[in-house]
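# step 3/5: fold
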Amino acid sequence: MKNKTIVFLLGVFVSLTAVGCKDETVPKPKSHLRLEYPSAQYKTYSISGAGCGYEFEVNEFSKIKTKADCSMEIQYPKMKATVYLNYKNVNNNIDQLLRDAQKLTYEHVIKADDIAEQPFVNPEHKTYGMFYQVGGNAATNAQFYVTDSTRHFLVGSVYFYAKPNYDSILPAAAYIKNDMRKIMESVKWK
């Protein structure tokens, strides 16, 4: 009786092994979330008051919230991000404003993999500045400042309302980074 049970169990085991090993198991290929955003359409946005006058081109996809001090928030609700533009008057303090703008960027060096600086010069519109790309899981991945060196100073930075995971926000970050570059390059002082 023992031998029959052993032979039966051995037969069942061999049968299951033979049936279960016909198809080779293949791991699923890596996939990426496909995020598509509308093509950027830009319009001129102008702000003036209390000694600050400037205009720039902004993506029509965004929503603008102005503040009393000539600063503003450019919101991207579908991407859960906001570009903060902070305006300052230059009153013989350009060195301090430049240090503050650079300090804001380099505070992210702890989480950043790298920080790339790209100078910007447009003598026609008297705008000069720097665009920073921050790589890695920093709180912001793009910042800039632009100035005429005598009266106006504008700083911009983007923040996402999510845990900073660069791979996850990369499509949205690239889209907004292009918009920020457009803002910086299209600034005209009044």
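# step 4/5: annotate
The first helix runs from residue 2 to 20.
# step 5/5: archive (pending)
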